[in-house]
Amino acid sequence: MAVSTTPGTVWGTWINLEGGIHSEPAPVSFADDRVQVFVRGGSNVLWSRVEARDGSWGPWQQYPGVSVDGIPAPVRGKDGRIRVFYRTPGNNLQVITQTAVNSGYGPPQTLVTGIGDDPAAALGADGRVYVFFPGADEALWYIRHQDPQYTTYTSPVSLGGVIRATPSPVLDGGGRLVVAVKGTSDTLYTIQQQGENSAAWEAYTLHASNITSRPSVCLDAAGRAQIFYRGSDAAVWRVGQNIDYDTFGAAAQLGGQIVWRPTCGLAQDGRINVFVKATDNALWVAVQATQNGDLYNGFQSLGGVVGSAGVAVPVPNEENLLYVFVQGSGVARDLWLQRQTFV
Is 1 a domain residue? Predict the structure, then answer.
């Protein structure tokens, strides 16, 4: 069976970007829509490669003075500059920031000391960057840009709760940030802003139990938050936001047998694609049957051999075609890319 994809496109051949990586890749788009992918290399060094206009890839670039543990979290701000947030081996939250749009990065800046796990970042309705992370007390914490100039950050604020993995934030179509977290006893919760740019948050809402991975969240074509996770049955499960941008539907199984968390992204035709590492160690994809629908086509293999790190969150290129990065298998641990191309 042919792999379901955006009409007019196909999935291409695998591209080896080499490098020897030690974490889930973390891609982001420049303001000019070129893709940059960050990875943690050996000795906790942060590296990246940038796509050129002709589709080739520039050389690996190392970031002096940066020591990263876990998975980096890049995000492009409303001002067009990328910030890369990460946890250091000493459990501090640091950031490097582009010195200008589409340019290089400045030196690392320490934002918070003594965090509990990797950070995740998202933009608020006014474009300020919010960074969420587990605290040393296992509660959910965040910082955000202090002003619309996007230069300074607030002190950390606790949202309470007890979380067991990196949170997954997204700005929904109603203009409020939604954060999905894995709680105690393998539970799925969300917490949401009370209003656009609000410092007040609603109470945590329980959506599911028996989740065995960090949740992943993306938006459907209507801007509704869609949460995917691995269940205790090793299948992919989904919890979707209702049209009120406030409540969520019941958890539903998508099938598959997977070994780590699913990741998801919105394709060119407005349908969500869900990517997983299956038990055969290949990359598989399931595609939403219809735009904004609740049903998904069955999982289909994209081949490859995925290593021990997770599958990256897909990122669109300048033509809005999805790129999916993975760590390869074996001692080499190369960075591999699978991408959509036009027929």
Answer: no
DSSP 189-217: EEEEBSSTT-S-BPPPEEEEE-B-S--EE
Contact yes or no for 328/313 (Cβ under 8 A): no
Whether residue 123 is contained in a domain is answered as yes
What are residue 235's phi and psi, to 5 degrees? Answer: -95, 165
The domain in which residue 165 lies consists of 9-342
CB 302 within 8 A of CB 311: no
Residue 191 Cα distances to 75, 167, 182, 232, angstroms: 21, 10, 11, 23
- DSSP string over 212-239: -S--EEEE-TTS-EEEEEEBTTSSEEEE
CA distances from 161 to 119, 202, 244 (A): 16, 12, 24
Structure confidence by residue, pLDDT tens digits, 45-104: 999 999 999 989 999 999 999 999 999 999 999 999 999 999 999 999 999 999 999 999
Judge whether residue 1 has pLDDT over 70: no
CATH number, residue 247: 2.120.10.10
Residue 4 lies in a domain: no
**Is-contact 335 37, C-beta < 8 A?**
yes
C-alpha 284, offset from chain centre: 17
CB 124 within 8 A of CB 179: no
- 3-21 pLDDT per residue, tens: 888 888 899 999 999 999 9
Contacts of 243 (CB under 8 A, 6+ apart): 222, 224
> 68 in helix, strand or coil?
coil
- Total of domains in the chain: 1
Answer yes or no: is 3 within a domain: no
Instruction: Work out the pLDDT band at 225, boundaries 50, 70, 90.
Output: very high
- Report the DSSP beta bridge partners of residue 130: 122, 144
